[in-house]
Amino acid sequence: MRTGTTVTTFGADTASVTTLFHYPDRPLIGRQSQMWVRLPEGWRIVSAHVSEIPAPG
User: How far is Cα 56 from Cα 26, in angstroms, rounded to an integer?
Assistant: First the structure.
């Protein structure tokens, strides 16, 4: 399940996307971030990161 997704644009050709997620069957909370750039061939992810930590409680 994803929650708290934020998209921030920088002009018409660059965007940052972050989201929180968790798996119903795992005691972890994750965060994912991506940088998107519009290139001549279309939108592409140019950088991404995913991390997970134990859920509180």
Answer: 12
Q: Can you give 19-53 as a three-state secondary structure string?
A: EEEECCCCCEEEEEEEEEEEECCEEEEEEEEEEEE
Whether the per-residue pLDDT at 56 is higher than 90: the answer is no
CA gyration radius, the chain: 14
Position with higher pLDDT, 1 vs 12 = 12
Question: Does the pLDDT at position 2 exceed 90?
Answer: no
Say how many domains are in the chain: 1
- The pLDDT, as a whole number, for residue 34 is 97
The CATH number of residue 41's host domain is 3.10.450.50
Non-local CB neighbours of 38 within 8 Å, separated by 6+ positions: 12, 13, 14, 44
